[in-house]
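I am writing to request your help with a piece of structural work I have in hand. Here, with my thanks, is the record as I have it:
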Amino acid sequence: MKPTPSDPVHDAQGLGGVHIKYLRHCPRQLWLYTRGYRPEAGSDLVAFGEVVSDTTFARRRDVDLGEARIDWVTTGAVVHETKSSRTPSPAHDAQVRHYCLLLERRGVNVRGGTVHYPLIRRTTDVPWNDEAREQAESAEDEARAVIAATAPPDRQPRAACRGCSYLDYCWGT
């Protein structure tokens, strides 16, 4: 059977950073996102995050890879990602590792990454080495498996859903 353009299993070949972030945050969110459910467009938290990103490092330019958009890359190939969260998350590091992998596949000699949290004036460094590469490749495999599933993954405990734009869908509140 030939895949159709809207087939989420085959669309997964171009995994972007949002796919990896959603995988690590909530696999159900990834599954719903790839099937076109996108409540983030109406989310005040998402809009706030865009304002923080746009105003914090206004002189930087996005790097558009097609399937992914990196906030910016500095000289020496260091990936930078800005988050409006007040709490660093493993999902943010996974997203940066994914960007490093995408750049490396394009022949860029990547050094690592930094996640910026301007609201708390903190940064976290994300190393790029063999272990990080394996984690990024594994995350891609996991994301493709979630996307290929015929039914959505189980929802997270409700406490983990605080602030999620998919809350209404999953919990019917």
